Amino acid sequence: MEILAFGVQSDEKPLIEKAFEGVHEVRCLDVFLNRDTAPIAAGHEIISTSVNADLSAPVLQTLAAGGTQMIAQRSTGFNNIDLEVAERLALRVARVSYYSPYSVAEFAWTLAMAVNRRIIRAASRTRDFDFRLDGLLGRDMRGRTVGVLGTGKIGEAFTRIAHGFGMKLLGWDVVENPACVELGMEYVAKERLFAEADLISLHVPLLPSTQHIIDEAALKAMKDDAILVNSSRGGLIDTAALVTELRAGRFLGVGLDVYEAEAGLFFLDKSLEGIDDDTLARLVTFPNVIVTSHQAYYTEDAVGQIIDATVQNVTDYLARRTGENVLVPRT
C-alpha cells in the first residue's frame, strides 16, 4: 500500500521517507491538499496532510469518493478539518497530539527579542556598513511583566524562559497549570493581563471561543509600548484591527509566525508573482513588525516527533487500534 503525503517540505522529505522505510511505502508531494489537488489522492486509502491543508467538506467528499479512508495530519492543530463531515463519510482522522513544546516556545521568544532589540533592522544596516545605533534602542526584560495566554505545554515552556529572565508572570487559561503557579505565575482576567503586560504571547488553540481573542478592544487595552507575539494560530488575532493600531503608532513590536489568511500563501514562494492580500502586504511594511512563515515548530526535534507520531498513527489504523491521536475513529 502506498501512502500519499501532501505538503511535504524539502527538509521533511528525507525524514519522512526514512521513518516509513521498511514499514510502509510513501510518496511525498510538495503540493498542498485543497479542492484542486484532492483528486490526486484517488486510489490511496491513506493520505497524510500538513497544517495548512484544506480539509473542508468538499475536499473530504472528493477524498472519500476516491477511496481514501484515513487522514493522518502532521500537526497538533485541526481547525482546518471539518470533523463532522469526516465522521459522516467514515473517514478516520488522526493528528499529532504532542511534539516538542520547546520548539514553539523558544521561537516565540526569538520573535519577542528580535522586535525588542531591532535585530532585523540592525542586520540590514550592517550589510550596508551602516553601524549607527539610532532607532535600535531596546529594553531589558528583567523586572517587566509578561502575559501568557494559554499555559499548556508550550505556554509552560514559554513561562519557564520568562521566569529565567526574571519577569513578573501573569497568565490566563481555562485551567491553571500548577507548574506555572509554582514558578510564581498569577492567573488573572484577560482584561488585566492586556492592561499590565509589557509582553503578551499567545499559546491557546484556535476554537470558536478563541477566534479573534485579540480583537479591537483587547488591542486598545494593551500598553502603547507592549510587545505582542503570536506563534499559535493566526485566527487568534483580528489582523485588520491590528493594522489599524499599528498605523496609529502603537506597540514596541509585533512578532507573528502565523496569519489568519495564511492558507495558500505560507510555505509557498510568492516572491515573483506577489500577493493580493492587502492586509498582509500592509502588515509587513511596519518597521516594528516581524512576520515569519509558520516555522515555530520547524526544528529537527519537533519535526522528527511529528513524523514518528504520523507513522504510528498509520500503523495503528492498519492494526485497527485507536490511540490518543485519533480525532475521528474508524467506523
How many distinct helices? 12
Strand order in the largest sheet: 8-7-6-9-10-11-12
How many beta-strand elements? Answer: 13
Q: Kindly estimate the percentage of residues that lie in beta strands according to DSSP.
A: 5-15%
> Oligomeric form of this entry?
single chain
- Could you state the CATH homologous superfamily of the largest domain? NAD(P)-binding Rossmann-like Domain
- In N-to-C order, the SSE pattern is EHEEHEHEHHEHEHEHEHEHEHEHE
CATH architectural label of the largest domain: 3-Layer(aba) Sandwich
How many domains is the backbone divided into?
Answer: 2
Largest sheet: 7 strands, parallel
Question: How would you portray this structure in words?
Answer:
The chain has 331 residues and is α/β, with parallel strands linked by helices. It has two domains: 2-99 and 299-328, NAD(P)-binding Rossmann-like Domain (Rossmann fold); 101-291, Rossmann fold, CATH 3.40.50.720. 34% of the residues lie in helices and 15% in strands. It contains twelve helices and 13 strands. It has helices at 13-20, 57-65, 83-88, 101-116, 119-127, 153-165, 178-182, 190-196, 216-221, 239-247, 278-283, 300-318, and strands at residues 2-5, 25-28, 46-49, 70-73, 92-94, 145-149, 168-172, 186-187, 199-202, 227-230, 253-256, 289-291, 326-328. It has a seven-stranded parallel β-sheet with strand order 8-7-6-9-10-11-12, sandwiched between helices. The longest helix has 19 residues, at 300-318. The protein is globular. It starts with a strand and ends with a strand. The relative contact order is 0.14. The model has no long low-confidence stretch (mean pLDDT 95).
